[in-house]
Specification:
By secondary structure, the protein is α/β, with parallel strands linked by helices. The protein folds into two domains: 163 residues, Leucine Aminopeptidase, subunit E, domain 1, CATH 3.40.220.10; 316 residues, 3-Layer(aba) Sandwich (Aminopeptidase), CATH 3.40.630.10. It is 35% helix and 20% strand. Strands 7, 8, 9, 10, 11, 14, 15, 16 and 18 form a nine-stranded mixed β-sheet that branches. Helix 4 links the parallel strand 5 and strand 6. Helix 8 packs antiparallel against helix 10 and helix 9 crosses helix 15. The longest helix is centred in the middle third of the chain and has 26 residues. The two termini are 35 Å apart. 50% of the residues are buried. The structure holds ligand BES, manganese (II) ion (MN) and zinc ion. The site of manganese (II) ion has 4 residues, from loops.
Length: 500
């Protein structure tokens, strides 16, 4: 897809589909449309006057009038109440426009972008949200289909975002470039996650991390089983020992020049497949556990975008990657293991493996003396039970950091909601034969998992993001095609946008 910004004057060519939005109660389409094409404007105005179209939310009106010069079809979209217009509604409408264009087999699209601005959203916002969402919504994981679902291919090849003269074209082009770099990193992350476990084992994930680092010109080091053993990372070793796939500990480091402003360290859970181990999972839905490396893939994707955008931040990404299998060498319930920081845990349930590998990675982050430490993990089914696919569970030792993360989430449409880390919760996982147990009573599962992680956090400012409910969708939903969502990529890039 080719996306370009155009100003009104330079659009004489007839394209397939022109899109103009109206808020509820507007008596006629925007003046921008009148300047572009008098006939198209008249059609819209008549439709409103005759009560055939009123700009209500999710209402649309299409016209194929041959007298319109600039497009074969004009689509008027209702956006509803201007006061209730939001960025998330805009994303859904943009995804809808792309789906509609494909259904009509339109190849070229022209969007009157300013008509989508209103309420809390200004024209500048549309210059990022529209291209980003087009790229997100265009994504499908269909590389293994020998015959694609939409064959013969329905593809939107060109999109022109039309702006009136009031807007600086160079500023728009910059926004588009930024938005598409983020979307590209997002879709890259989605593919890493969507790849099945047989084709994306820890070594493959590490290969992609190295590749991203090479292209982005930043450091990447991958520790294998012998180095992991030397560092006494007992959690990673224990989880990996039931699989033939060797563990990989990915260490990425971008922006050393910005070290003086403080380091941010990201940690992502990289379980390339989670059978549960000896505490084996039921077979129903087990195929979804190929997504259990979403946190790691998200960290890799964020570093990809950050290096591409050249953000002024010293960012370290750590991704412990393993496969959790019940092989002959597998750890057993009751095993006691010792982590990088010397603490011990009893493995009550081998399916609570995420916290075991994250424990070593969180403790290891100490080496980089980060100012802020954030981990992402598909850690607990309980988080999906609590929030469904509507929110990321946030647990943190730093209220100010929570506020920043929540604000970023409001902006990107990745809602975050805090759960408490009260000391009383520790009683549930306090060990008898070891310092801690990796599973408790089952109650408060999302929080007790975070309480376990907290034991390994070497600094004050830490936030844990449980993305178990949000990392993938089971069916196509607006801009998310069935499969991985890449949640967290846009969230943390927004957090780092004006990072101090
Ligand atoms: N990867 C799972 C969590 C998960 C389950 C994420 C379903 C998304 C959907 C994790 O490793 C796990 O199995 N957690 C257990 C912990 C329990 C054994 C204490 C869980 O949530 O049941
Ligand atoms: Mn598990
Ligand atoms: Zn898991």
């Amino acid at each position: 897809m080719d996306i370009t910004a155009r100003s009104l004057g330079e659009t004489k060519q007839k394209i397939d589909l022109l899109v103009c939005a109206l808020f509820e109660g507007e008596k006629s389409p925007s003046k921008v449309l009148e300047t572009l094409d008098k006939k198209a404007f008249q059609i819209g105005k008549l439709a409103v006057q005759q009560g055939r179209f009123s700009g209500k939310e999710s209402e649309q009106f299409a016209s194929y009038d041959g007298n319109v010069q600039v497009a074969k079809e004009v689509l008027f979209l209702g956006l509803g109440d201007k006061g209730k217009w939001t960025a998330e509604k805009l994303r859904k409408r943009v995804a809808g426009v792309l789906a509609y264009a494909k259904s009509q087999n339109a190849k070229s699209l022209r969007i009157l972008a300013e008509t989508f601005a209103g309420g809390p959203m200004d024209t500048q916002d549309t210059t990022e949200i529209i291209p980003e969402t087009l790229d997100r919504a265009d994504y499908r994981f269909d590389k293994y289909l020998t015959k694609k679902k939409d064959e013969p291919k329905r593809e939107v090849k060109t999109v022109e975002l039309l702006y009136s003269k009031k807007v600086q074209p160079s500023a728009i082009q910059k926004s588009i470039t930024r938005a598409r770099a983020i979307a590209e990193a997002l879709n890259f992350t989605r593919t890493l996650i969507n790849e099945p476990a047989n084709l994306m084992p820890p070594r493959e994930l590490a290969r992609h991390a190295r590749e991203v680092a090479r292209a982005g010109k930043f450091r990447c080091q991958v520790l294998g089983p012998s180095e992991i053993k030397k560092l006494k990372m007992g959690g990673i070793i224990a989880v990996a020992q039931g699989s033939h796939e060797p563990a990989q500990f990915i260490i990425m480091e971008y922006g050393r020049a910005y070290k003086k402003h403080g380091t941010v360290c990201l940690v992502g859970k990289g379980v390339t497949f989670d059978t549960g181990g000896i505490s084996i999972k039921p077979s129903r839905d087990m195929e979804k556990m190929k997504y259990d490396m979403s946190g790691a893939a998200t960290v890799i994707g964020i570093l990809k975008a950050v290096s591409r955008l050249k953000l002024p931040i010293h960012l370290v990404g750590l991704a412990p990657c393993v496969e959790n299998m019940p092989g002959g060498g597998a750890q057993r319930p009751g095993d006691i293991i010792k982590f990088y920081n010397g603490k011990s845990a009893e493995v009550i349930n081998t399916d609570a493996e995420g916290r075991l590998i994250l424990a070593d990675a969180l403790a290891y982050s100490e080496k980089f003396k980060p100012k802020v430490l954030i981990d992402l993990a598909t850690l607990t089914g309980a988080c999906a039970v609590t929030f469904a696919d509507k929110a990321i569970g946030v647990m943190s030792t730093d209220p100010a950091l929570v506020q920043k993360i929540r604000k970023a989430g409001e902006t990107t449409g990745e809602r975050c909601w805090e759960l408490p880390l009260w000391d009383e919760y520790f009683e549930i996982i306090k060990g008898h034969h070891s310092d801690i147990m990796n599973a408790g009573s089952g109650y408060g599962g999302t929080i007790t998992a975070a309480m376990f992680l907290k034991e390994f956090v070497p600094i004050k400012s830490w936030a844990h993001l449980d993305i178990a409910g949000t990392a993938w969708v089971d069916s196509d939903k607006s801009y998310n095609a069935r499969g991985a969502t890449g949640v967290g990529v846009r969230l943390l890039l927004e957090l780092f946008r004006n990072w101090k």
